[in-house]
Design a protein that fits this description.
The complex is a heterodimer of chains A (273) and B (260). Helix content of chain A is 42%, strand content 15%. By secondary structure, chain A is an alpha/beta fold. In chain A, helix 9 runs parallel beside helix 10. In chain B, the strands form 2 sheets. Chain B has an 8-stranded parallel sheet, sandwiched between helices. Chain B has a two-stranded antiparallel ribbon with strand order 2-3. The longest helix of chain B is centred in the last third of the chain and has 18 residues. Chain B is globular, with a radius of gyration of 17 Å. The chains are: A alpha/beta (273), B alpha/beta (260).
Chain lengths: 273, 260
Amino acid sequence: MKPGNKSAYLAEFLRYGRLKNIKIIDAHTHMGSVYGCRLPVSDAEACMKLLDEENIESIWCSAHADLFHIDGDRINGETKALVRKYPARVKGYYAFNPNRKEAYLRGIGEAAENKGFVGLKFLPNYHNSALDGEGYAEALDFADKRGLLVLCHTWGDKPHNSVKEAVGVLKRHKNLVFILGHSAPGDLDGAIAAARAHENAYLDLCDIHRHAGTVEKMVRGVGAERVLFGTDMPWYDPNYCIGSVLGARITDADREKIFYKNAIGILKRIGKI
Amino acid sequence: MRLIDCSACIGYGGVNRRIVNHENYTVTERVDEPKDAGALLAEMDFCGIDAAVVYHQAMLDVSPAYGNDLILKETAGRERLYASVALLPPVSDEGFGVPDLRRVFSDKKVVAARMYPKINRFMLNRVTVGEVLEYMTEARIPLFLSPSDGWEDIFGVLKEFPDLTAVITNYGLWGSDRYFYPLARAYKNVHIDTGDFQEIRGVEAFVRQFGSGRLLFGTNYPMDNMGGPVAVLAGARISEADRENIACKNIERLIAEVKR
């Protein structure tokens, strides 16, 4: 049966199996294999082919190996290589691990000075360090001073990166742009309230988009202009997240912001375009 | 092409919705829940889904017997909805013996069963529910199982009942090929609900290895929204014949095969 949803973009997707007339920027991705799951598409070449197939213009990325492995001589080496090799398709997040913060702080200038990098990526719970603690303080000060983007993993019921810690950071840092990665599953209402209270905070669809009503709730809560498309590629099929946005009770104008315009706005704000 | 959702839930959760992230790990989040069949059908209309096999949240939150009564009431007279019922061990619980099941499944609206061994505190094995599983295997009644508390029950029950028609559902967003593939290779009647299937080109990879006869389009609503699974199927690089198998033909075949 034909859907009651009259989105022109949904009709296009159902007809062609992809979006053709709207570009997409994926603000939350990784690259490479990782523990836990078989990832049928995970290396850079296969992911670039996927971007072409799904009409995704570019991705903002932090490679798995840079997040989960500390290579003292090659900090963020995988992500740097991706940014060099695919300058039009990949923008990098500089992964910051506070457990070796001296080493990471030595190279943090790259996040600001390299046009191919958009900012910093934090995984506080994975790295067992509180987002609002000592471990991240200098990196956050740096990001704030340089007006960078910070993509931080947030999770409602996990220590170190709940909404409470994110709000602590947002209260102290007004110049950086902060993405609540995953929008704190288990505490989406808290993430929405935090974004509503801080104009430099964005909600991330990554993972959490899949639940019934999530996209609508975000758009109602903060407006479509502060919701970002993110997939965790290569973990998850971009079509699933695209479908979550297409299948939501929002307007096509909202969808354009979520898929593309908001990301462009951030790139302009942080001077990376 | 018709879209038949193999697994959607009706009813409000007691507080929030417990959602499988991956086995042994859940997230509790507020989602838009359909309070009744009418609300579910409205969402199906919006997303272009023709029919659905449904269960009731009260099967989990209250009891299988209570939830079964509700789902039979919700689906009665609604042509687009098929019912699935939750089962318990008849050795301990009245009303769940094989004669009871024969009566329940004589109603063509009832097309599948579910078991929740962990929350109902029983062992999913021959010792506990052997007579029920023998009947279901013989009658080709699909049994929906979730690995929300781990995969051991599923691997265990299929080892004892290798011909059981099983549908793996509500398994979380983490890729589960390392569980699916061995099961699909070993047991010809194992099927996968695509509601949580989010691997990149995962549908294509599964179809290449096992054909399209083992995947059932599903939404796992409301833990998942309906738009995501629809887009995964619509965007999969597979033949139209394979797409139609997944969209509707496989579940139609399973429903038709139930011996009443």
